[in-house]
Design brief:
By secondary structure, this protein is α+β, with helices and mostly antiparallel strands. Among the domains are: 142 residues, DNA methylase specificity domains (Adenine-n6-DNA-methyltransferase TaqI, Chain A, domain 2), CATH 3.90.220; 127 residues, Adenine-n6-DNA-methyltransferase TaqI, Chain A, domain 2 (Alpha-Beta Complex), CATH 3.90.220. It contains twelve helices and 19 strands. The chain is elongated, with a radius of gyration of 27 Å.
């Protein structure tokens, strides 16, 4: 029997009492916004949290700092560290976080100062994060905005403090493991970018060649049907991700892609390993002769030096880039043997950093699912006498 099982059996074998958030807080407050016409209010040293910064993480700093005059103007109060902060408006409505520093907030944050003699603040945090969808459904408007009264009256199970602390310990372990993996992934991505640029720019035996001398460029067409749900083939068009799915394909794999027009996609370089459907707003670029140029090498080169594409970006109206301009791009081409060596190294980094089945992203996703499973299980309490 685990320590938690022992505690539950000893302290609350018949269930737990339920209360509301208001009953376990010494203070519940919201903040304010300094007059936006006074720019001098926003050039200070006082951390001021906006609702969009509330996103499941421990808050260690804020994006905006206000002055003492701005604080007085906004009628906001200082929020001591280790409070549970609930976003009430906008895209982050019903998300929660914990502030690890004293700070102030705007009026769209509901700040819970938890009475530690009644509840562990991290227990309250985990409970509200687990009930995100329930809390959000209580909101109103297109973004399900909630108010402080809704938060105050939200139900909360109240097991004995030793039980709360053990649940927090277990969930913190999962959270810390995920954070460690995420930090490692960030470090590996920086390392990946460094080695990619180093390997692609340090060869002394390269030959400058125009892109259209060694590769072909073509656009595709729109499929008869486009599906949101996964089908056999990805539909690659404008943008930085797929535009849906198709039941057939019009382009072979081992192909580099880059958008021809659209907002936010110009300069993005993708790679399709398997057959896919190429859309009308996307170029496919493939080697004419793999004995001279590996298409995978071309992907790494263009993604590393995408400024060569961006220099031809047309800003008027919808951003675009012409095929005739892409054809002029000069790439530095080493021998195919060196290309093979470079690709083998970068492929290993790419798998580690980006593969959703075997790399660090896959491990992080597995840990998140494991955390959510145990969070749901640990925070399910029968109500006493129910």
């Amino acid at each position: 029997m685990s320590k938690l099982d022992e505690l539950i059996r000893e302290l609350c074998p018949d269930g737990v009492e339920y209360t509301i958030i208001d009953k376990v807080c010494t203070k519940i407050s919201s903040g304010g916004t300094p007059n936006t016409s006074h720019g001098e209010y926003y050039n200070g040293s006082i951390p001021w949290l906006r609702t969009q910064e509330v996103d499941w993480i421990d808050i260690l700093d804020t994006g905006v700092k206000i002055t003492n005059e701005g604080l007085q103007n906004s009628s906001a109060n200082w929020v001591p560290k280790n409070c549970v902060i609930v976003a009430m408006y906008g895209a982050t409505a019903a998300k929660v976080a914990i502030n690890k520093i004293p700070l102030t907030t705007n009026q769209a944050c509901c700040n819970l100062q938890v009475d530690e003699s009644k509840a562990a603040y991290r227990f309250v945090y985990y409970w509200l994060s687990n009930k995100y969808s329930v809390l959000k459904k209580l909101g109103q408007g297109s973004q399900s905005n909630i108010n402080a009264k809704t938060v105050r009256n939200f139900p909360l199970p109240l097991p004995p403090l030793p039980v709360q602390h053990e649940i927090v310990r277990i969930l913190d372990t999962f959270t810390e493991l995920t954070a460690e993996l995420t930090a490692e992934l960030t470090a590996r991505k920086r390392q990946y970018e460094y080695y990619k640029k180093h390997l692609l720019s340090q060869s002394s035996t390269t030959v400058p060649v125009r892109l259209d001398d060694v590769a072909t460029l073509k656009t595709g067409s729109k499929p008869t049907e486009i599906f949101d749900q996964h089908e056999a083939f990805e539909y690659i068009n404008a943008g930085t991700s797929n535009s849906g799915y198709a039941r057939g394909f019009n382009c072979e794999g081992d192909t580099v892609t880059t958008p021809s027009r659209g907002q936010g996609g110009i300069g993005y370089v993708g790679y399709q390993k398997t057959p896919f459907w190429l859309g009308p707003l996307c170029y496919r670029i493939r080697s004419k002769d793999t004995k001279a140029l590996l298409t995978r090498y071309l992907f790494y080169y263009l993604s590393c030096f995408n400024d060569k594409i961006l220099q031809y970006k047309n800003e008027g109206g919808t951003p675009s880039v012409n095929a005739s301009d892409l054809a002029k791009i000069v790439i530095d081409l080493p021998s195919v043997e060196e290309q093979t060596y470079i690709v083998s190294i970068l492929d290993r980094f790419d798998t580690l950093c980006n593969d959703i089945t075997t790399g660090l992203p896959a491990e992080i996703e597995a840990r998140k699912k494991q955390y959510e499973y145990y969070r749901d299980k640990l925070l399910s309490f029968p109500e006493v006498n129910s």
